[in-house]
Amino acid sequence: xxxxxxxxxxxxxxxxxxxxxxxxxxxxxxxxxxxxxxxxxxxxxxxxxxxxxxxxxxxxxxxxxxxxxxxxxxxxxxxxxxxxxxxxxxxxxxxxxxxxxxxxxxxxxxxxxxxxxxxxxxxxxxxxxxxxxxxxxxxxxxxxxxxxxxxxxxxxxxxxxxxxxxxxxxxxxxxx
Length: 176
Prior knowledge:
By secondary structure, the protein is α/β, with parallel strands linked by helices. It is about 50% helix and about 15% strand. The protein has a 5-stranded parallel sheet with strand order 4-5-6-1-7, sandwiched between helices. Strands 2-3 form a two-stranded antiparallel sheet.
C-alpha cells in the first residue's frame, strides 16, 4: 500500500516536472531536448501537456513522431496538412506561406519524438524553417541514439536546455 502510494507520488511529480519544463519552454519560446528513458515513459505525459494547451481551432503545440529518412519538405507538408485540418480546412492551401498558416493556428511549439531518425540535413532544414516561423522545437529521444545521430553534438542543439527523464526520476525516488 505504501509502495503504491510512493509510486503514484513519483509519477505525479514526474508529470508535474515535465509539464512545467515544457510550459516554461512554450512561454519563453525556447528550444530544448528531452532525454527519455528506454521505456519511452514520457509519451503519455507529453500527451497531457498537449491536451492542456489545445484549443478549438488553435494548436499552440503539436507532437510528431519522426519517420526514418523523412525529408524536411515531407515533414513541413504533413505539418501544414495537420494544421489546416485543425483550422477546419479540408484542403491544404499551398499558396499560403508557412508562417501565415502557423500564425493562424497559433503554433508556438513542435515536439518531435525519436528525432534521431531524421538525417542531419533534414534537422538543419527544420531548425531553419521553424526558427523563421518563430516556432520552438523540442526534440525527444534516447541519449545514446541522439549521440549516435550527432544530434547532441549539433552546433546549435548542444546549447539547448536538456530535461533528462531518468535523472529527474532518480532524484524523485531519493526524495520519497
